Amino acid sequence: MQKLLRGIGLAVLATAATLPCGRADEIDLDGQPWSSGASDADNESCVEPDLGAGCCDDLDTDCPSRRFYITGIIGASFGALQSGGINTEGNFPNTGRATDSLLTAGGAIGTAFDRNNGLLRLEVEGRGRDALSGTTNSFEPPTPSYFYSVRAADGWSVMTNAWRDWNLTERLGVYTGGGIGAGGYRLTVNDGVVSGYGHVGGFAWQAGTGTTYQLTERTTIDLGYRFFDTVSDSLPLTAIGSGGAPAGSYVSNFYASELLLSVRIYEPFRSRPVR
Description:
By secondary structure, the chain is mainly beta.
């Protein structure tokens, strides 16, 4: 959980630098429009280096724009835990996989950049997952005679994502993209002869697609699919009742197909401009 909060905190710092520059027109204390007196040519000289464009007024439709957003995410994760490694007490490889349907939830913060017929969205996403429980094979050849009881709890992931949105109509759109980051879980395994317990995790990636619908100027709902995967990691095994004698390792890999419902709010902390 600390890794998840740390990743979200870094994302806040990263996206704060991408907020657009302010309007040239403000309101004075008498409620009348006030202008700095700068000409159009002066305004054109206010350049944001990363976009190469002038400071954009909210009424200007010709210059590139970008918007900060936050997203709430909830959905179903159809997870699988693939087993590997060697149980040295039986001198056999660990095989098989455990599957379970899990709840996943989290959020994302990012910046959306206007592009031809859509958006380019860059974001940092953090999510958690319910515990996965099941069994995998131990002492396999010729037929498994022992089975691991496995549990992967406290699942987490922090991802840096890039999504490309395309508009189909004024409100309806589709998108595709993916991301890389890190993920992990707290793993418990026990086959009655050996056992293991500890936190595992490492590099993670995801790819996905989905459909968006714009409810209002600032609010969009998103129904999407993700394939999420983590690299394999090893958990030491010990012989039960031996005082901690090594008994090989249990290598696990978590991956999942996920259906997610998201609500995205653009510029959530910014009031509407005075027209």
